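Ex. 9. Protein: Tetratricopeptide repeat protein.
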Amino acid sequence: MRSWILFVYLGYLLSALAIYAQSNRLDQLIAEHPDEAEYYFLRGREYLLRDGNFVAAITDFSSAIERDGWYFEAYLFRAIAYFESGEKLEAKKDAFKARSIKEEDARLNAILGIIFMNERNYYRAADFFTRQIQLDPDNSQAYANRAWALLMIPGYSEMALQDYTEALNKDPQNISVFYNQTEPLLLLERYEEAEESLSQAIHLQPSNSRFYFKRALIRLRMQDYERALADNLQVLRLMNEEEIPMIIATLVNITDIYLRLHKWDLALYYSDITLELSLGESYAAYVNRGLALIGVWASNPDLDESHREELENEILQMFDLALQKGFPSAIYLKRRIPDAIKNRHQVDDSSF
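Predicted structure tokens for Tetratricopeptide repeat protein:
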């Protein structure tokens, strides 16, 4: 969640060089001038932006406020620190206190918008982001912020897309906008444009595995299986071994593609890898393995009776394990089982 600090605030702050130039002197200045609010604020800002030390930042901002109860910047930055540390109510109090001191600040309205986004009050969030735009009309991220809020309101996808377009007009290199605007494009079923937007993001940041992951999903919707597969394989190349959840999700997607291509052996291979990596906890892998086994069963009508029964039992076992691990729809699984297997094994509504 720290990314929103960087997007919203760094354009307004002193350069990093100016901050670092003061850093070695602030402790000394506070010791020499213990009643000076500004020095506590400056040190708190360093703790927040340079170190991510929210507790120390809050302590220093509080010291600044004790010495100057109308210190707008101290309330503003303490609101950020509180929000980042999870104390959302305190963040909201500080943001509104800052607003009572000075409403006409784009950063403050961005913070209030984010706070109301967190509360899922999307209309109120959009209002604050609109105010941010009014106060800072050249800020690309301000339009992206409002698009984020509008996207959460049913029926506002077109308006969200207009804001993303304006954000790119203000900053054609805004990578996050290329990535995020795929959401309204997908809702509007404009898949080719969504794919192109992800391709622009990849062009600007070719090492970002999330971009390939999402473009693969879009290409899957477009039934462009070969290129979706290529994107998923690129995701695996870019990720490190610590990103286990995303690796598992990518393996599930690869398995799904091979199922659609009726490549049962490869679907089984990747579902087995997924189960191994997830320590047997991925319900999607059990579902995919069951579907691949159904493909094997259907494409081999000449199997002898013992092998056929063994295969059918394994199919039912995979679906049963999927439900045990949290797969939400027994009805879906039942519908995927061929009638011949249902009849032979007396599969009914109570079977799962």
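Check your answer against this statement. The first helix runs from residue 3 to 9.
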